[in-house]
Amino acid sequence: MRGISTRSRTPGAATLGTAPAVRLESVVKTYGTGPSAVVALRSIDLTLERGSFTAIMGPSGSGKSTFLNTAAGLDTPTSGSVWIGDTAISRMRATTLAKFRRTHVGFVFQAYNLLPALTVEQNVTLPLLLSHKRVDRTWFDRIIRAVGLDELRRRRPAELSGGQQQRVAIARALVTRPDAVFADEPTGALDSRTGQQVLELLAQMTRELNQTVVMVTHDPAVAARADSVVFLADGAFVGSQVGATTQQIVDRMSALGTW
What we know:
Elements: E1 4-5, E2 22-31, E3 38-48, E4 53-57, H1 64-71, E5 79-84, E6 87-88, H2 94-104, E7 105-109, H3 120-130, H4 137-146, H5 162-174, E8 180-184, H6 192-209, E9 213-216, H7 220-223, E10 228-233, E11 236-242, H8 246-256
Parallel strand pairs: 4-9, 4-10, 7-8, 8-9
Antiparallel strand pairs: 1-3, 2-3, 2-5, 5-6, 10-11
């Protein structure tokens, strides 16, 4: 199955640069304690290879957002291990983890989260500035051209369309050459035509830059643009599909219950 494996690998077995982009081993996430405790993730074992484009789907309350937050290091699992590349992040201290995320993890959200006073170029390179790292101009130019912003690099967010602002967010997510980019409903605020352009751009990043993209969505048509779809229900991994059509995803989601 391209890009997805539910079989765990031995930590540290892969050498630098060859480890899977993301790996979850027996991950459990529980909120609260005692009788009122809510189990959001139940023993998730999942490996996402480099250069894969994976959509995460499931009914409302299935654990999609918790999965994304835990896999990306925004939240800590109650038990189990999360690996980004060849680094175990599950038990990192908060300050160390925050520094790690700046250079190893990219984020694209429905809200673009651009700073209005900064230009396109300044918004894109902000993660490098925060990490006190030098901008690789060759890589920056490649990204800015790939996302179609070469002529707009001196504009500010207010001078851009929604689709262009999301392209800035994607470029910002890529500028540090992260192990993985996590996208949470990245087309939710866009019209259908612009949304399709953004999805094609994400797919292009996996093909041309070998970038790993993990995308949470509730839309089967959006999920169908990914290489693979992982399904969650009641916080558990319940299957996956490779190269699925929109209708196949609709049928699978219908079998899982209320969306």
